[in-house]
Amino acid sequence: MPGAEGPTLADATRGRILFGGDYNPEQWPEATWHEDVRLMKDAGVNSVTLGVFSWAKLEPRPGEREFGWLDMLMDLMHANGIGVVLATPTSSPPPWLGRLHPETLPRDEDGRTEWWGGRQHFSHSSAVYRQYAAAITEDLAARYGGHPALAMWHINNEYCTYDWGDEAAARFRRWLQDRYGTLDALNSAWGTAFWSQGYGDWAEVQTPRHAHYLKNPGQVLDFKRFTSDMLLECYVAERDIVRRHTPDRIPVTTNFMPLWAGQDAWRWSAEEDVVSVDLYPDPRDPLGAQHGALVQDMTRSQARGPWMLMEQAAGPVNWRGVNHPKPRGLNRLWSLQAVARGADAVCYFQWRQSRQGAEKFHSGMVGHAGEEGRTFQEVKQLGAELARIAADVTGRHTDSDIAVLHDWHSWWAGAHEGRLSTRVDYTDVLTAWHRALWQAHLATDFAHPEHDLSAYKLVVVPQLYALTDAAVDNLLAYVRDGGTLVCGFLTGIADQDDRVRTGGMDARLRELFGIRTLHEWWPLDEGEVVETDGFRGTLWSEELDRAEDGSAEVTYKGGELDGLPAVLRKGRAWYVSTLPEPHALRTLLAQVADGAGVRPVLHGLPDRVEAVRRGDLLFVLNHGRESVTVELPGSHRDLLTGVTVEGEVTLGRYGVVVLRP
Predict the structure, then answer these.
(1) Sheet with 530-531: strands ordered across
(2) What percent of the chain lies above the pLDDT cut of 70?
(3) pLDDT band at residue 530, thresholds of 50, 70 and 90?
(4) Which of 486, 456, 471, 484 is nearest to 409 (CA)?
(5) How far apart are CA 24 and CA 92, in angstroms?
(6) What does the pLDDT average to over 126-137?
(7) Closest of 390, 395, 388, 394 to residue 642, by C-alpha
(8) Selection from 544, 545, 543, 537 nearest residue 578 by Cα
């Protein structure tokens, strides 16, 4: 796991909160570099990321190297006490690579080439791409691995490339041979007896390209696994190169996109020294803070401790239909929310807003308005506050008694186009359950269904359509050993090959929840609900029978048909066969948590106020636009202002306090 033996984020922070962002000096004349350094020091910036999209600048023609400009930047940063997160530039190959080697370009499922002119235009399976990527990484690491400005390596950027091309297909076949060994095993796993799809030669196996009708779900599932593994191979190859040239305590990372479907981030995080993420909630979304909390909780859980916010926006982005700026105070609020939930690095894309290119309207820490602009003035305030609290925060853990289970393979399996309801979106269900806990002021971790769950009083499974036998056994053992489990609908339906379990749900889980027979799934149309005797259910319902021994209690029942219990309880195991409306799900989970001995961080919190403990510090954040007063137990000192508060604290619009007892 991250930090188990090698370097960690602490080796880069050294007691500070890293503060800065992507710096692209190649877009600016040299005179601007010195102005940038002045402004960085004024804002408290102690870290910049260099080189993310610099391949064409570093290697303008095949085999040539132009490092002089980067030498100057590395020396300039070091001279001014600013550490460098140095990136390998391999996410955006130069045009000459695609022109000379078109096989390095990815192809979509219709066979169309993705050309240069944007970014991420590389085939993860291309041997030629990997050779050129390794060569530039080798030379970069050899030149700067011992530079005193180097604080961390950043490999590639936002790995997110799919490829359905011929070279990817050849690699896919080798990957499948390693996984299954024989065609008989492959045919069994993919259920190829259906629709006459049986394979008699490995050469017949392709990537799941455009098909006349529904694609084989086993093939699609394995292609998603393959894509994650191929991208991971690219990361590991570059990581191992930079490690060979770098002192032992320089960590390596790459940045996740939150809840992106293409990476098994549990597996990826085990290969990183530092787990980092890019996070861009919509400032107009009334639930943007909850989205941020979900991503932060997930990233902290993958890191098993402090993590890095690699990118966020200081103001508007450029890729929404309407790109709204952040109101005054929101950048500060969301940045401190990340710190509360375990971030020891708060960084941005990017330092100075670009004047040209596709992202010239994406905000920077220094916007087009310059240093007098509101954005930079707020960044400057935040930098001073992060420096003020760093010694009390860094390295501390944000603990929870609740684990929310999440697994990419289950998500992939359940997303097949031939599923029962396209209205049931995994991420929406996951978000709804996390939101209910967040609004009930209950702190949460995330965990894989095969992880050790013994430290948690409550485990919540919003939806895990496909579960391995090991995962099912883990859930049974957790309840047997005294844990409380709450599962949502469409859990345990299939095995790891997307083969439906006998009875429509794993028999061990049916026994656990007290379900005798699951007769029918009843997905609900838009606007259709299940009226129970306590709440309304949405999206889904089920026709099922309780076990005949009466061991399961129907906590809520309803529906037009008999046998549609909305919530079943058997001892410490709860099963929810619909998606309760938000207030009802919040009430239900708060009730179960209370019975399991889990308490909110603070009682009686107003809506839109969040309280998070990190170590012995208490963060209280007002996500609302109106002032609120929050009751506190005893006396605390606010580390942001130095003011002592007794018994209560008043928070203005987007207000934050960081309290020490």
Answers:
(1) 530-531, 536-538, 579-580
(2) 98
(3) confident
(4) 471
(5) 14
(6) 98
(7) 388
(8) 537
> Mean of the pLDDT values across residues 201-221?
97
What is the rounded CA–CA span in Å between residue 121 and residue 113? 9
pLDDT for residue 488 is more than 80: yes
- Token pair of 622 as six digits: 């007002």
- What is the band of 3 on the pLDDT scale with cuts at 50, 70, 90? very low
| CB 392, CB 342: distance < 8 Å | no
Tell me the C-alpha to C-alpha distance, in Å, between residue 127 and each of 133, 234, 429, 581.
10, 10, 39, 50
| pLDDT at 564 exceeding the cut of 90 | no
- Provide the pLDDT for residue 548: 81
Integer Cα distance of 449 and 404 in angstroms: 9
Strand order in the sheet with 565-570: 445-447, 402-405, 458-461, 484-488, 573-576, 565-570, 553-557
Question: CA–CA distance from 52 to each of 68, 84, 115, 480 (Å)?
Answer: 17, 12, 19, 49
Q: Assign 455 to helix, strand or coil.
A: coil
pLDDT at 558: 63
CA 296 to chain CA centroid, nearest Å: 8
Number of C-beta neighbours around residue 197 at 10 A: 14
Nearest alpha carbon to residue 245 among 14, 71, 48, 86: 86
∠ CA 605-606-611 to the nearest 5 degrees? Answer: 45
Angle (nearest 5°) at CA 469 between 467 and 475? 75
In 177-317, beta strands by DSSP E: 252-253, 255-256, 276-278, 307-311
Tokens coding 510: 């049916």
In this prediction, residue 46 has a pLDDT band, given cuts at 50, 70 and 90, of very high
pLDDT digits (tens, 9 = 90+) for 410-460: 999 999 999 999 999 999 999 999 999 999 999 999 999 999 999 999 999
Residue 560, classified by CB atoms within 10 Å of its CB into exposed (0-12), middle (13-18) or buried (19+), is exposed
> d(Cα 458, Cα 589) in Å, to the nearest integer?
10
Residue 404 has pLDDT above 60, yes or no: yes
* Distance of alpha carbon 250 from alpha carbon 203, whole angstroms: 44
Burial zone of 42 (CB within 10 Å; 0-12 exposed, 13-18 middle, 19+ buried) = middle
Tokens encoding 161: 């490339």
Q: Which residue, among 269, 335, 260, 263, has the nearest Cα to 299 in the 3D structure?
A: 269
> Minimal CA–CA distance to 471: which of 439, 494, 504, 442?
494
pLDDT at 484: 98
Predicted pLDDT at 560: 47
Closest C-alpha among 203, 265, 180 to residue 229: 265
Say how far apart CA 440 and CA 577 lie, in whole Å. 21
Residue 216 DSSP code: P
DSSP H or E stretch at residue 267: helix 265-269
The residues annotated with a catalytic role in the active site are 158, 311
Torsion of CA 85, 382, 301, 154, to 10 degrees: -10
